Amino acid sequence: KQEVTQIPAALSVPEGENLVLNCSFTDSAIYNLQWFRQDPGKGLTSLLLIQSSQREQTSGRLNASLDKSSGRSTLYIAASQPGDSATYLCAVRPGGSQGNLIFGKGTKLSVKP
Amino acid sequence: NAGVTQTPKFRILKIGQSMTLQCTQDMNHNYMYWYRQDPGMGLKLIYYSVGAGITDKGEVPNGYNVSRSTTEDFPLRLELAAPSQTSVYFCASGDRGRETQYFGPGTRLLVL
Q: Who's near A112: CB < 8 A, 6+ residues apart?
């Protein structure tokens, strides 16, 4: 059974720091991996989608990498800002699935001015 | 283009009551999903649909039912509400099974 783990559960950093969020999954048979952002009381916003054949994706200050064979992904946030404060969720789409996602519990990020 | 909309935003139910959570998408997506999120946890799949008239169970389907009569709508029905169903419910849709999913704002449900 596919399981997704995110470390750390919470992270507090001063503004301007570069930071890394970690995601690991137990079964390497995946179609893709997505990183989402969730603000309190809001829905999920997709940040980056990495297909299983890709190694990384970039969007602005965000860079996500995927090492499928070792079951790991990282989300790198450069020059963090207070507006980056949110919970970041990692989700994998298992191979053979109908598109449903398996989520980690998330990393709650706080960026202090 | 509203994306994925959900109603209501918040609801309090008494044990044993029934209700329907509404979900509508205007992106003409075939794939739609219902997830629940308990405090401090990731999302878990309740039911999903790959097209009108086709639905299937996810990881936690007990106590819920769904229907998909149109491409746009995917309502989730709770027949006999229980305290264990207190959660935040998210509806999502996608164009194909392998692409980005778009999420609604969620429905917060409290069962007392």
A: A12, A13, A14, A15, A82
Question: Which chain A residues are within 8 Å of B21, Cβ to Cβ?
Answer: none
Confidence of residue B100 (pLDDT cuts 50, 70, 90): confident
Task: Give me the phi and psi of B47, to 5 degrees please.
Answer: -145, 160
pLDDT score at A42: 84
Integer CA distances (angstroms), B46 to A29, B35, B43, B96, in order: 22, 5, 9, 19
Give the mean model confidence (pLDDT) for residues B19-27. Answer: 96
In this prediction, residues A43-64 reach a mean pLDDT of: 94
- pLDDT surpasses 80 at B86: yes
Residues 6+ apart with CB under 8 A from A53: none
Using a CB-CB cut-off of 8 Å, the residues of chain A touching B108 are 41
Asked if the Cβ–Cβ distance from A49 to B100 is below 8 Å, we say: yes
| Cβ contact, residue pair B98, A32, below 8 Å | yes
A97:B96 CB<8 A: no
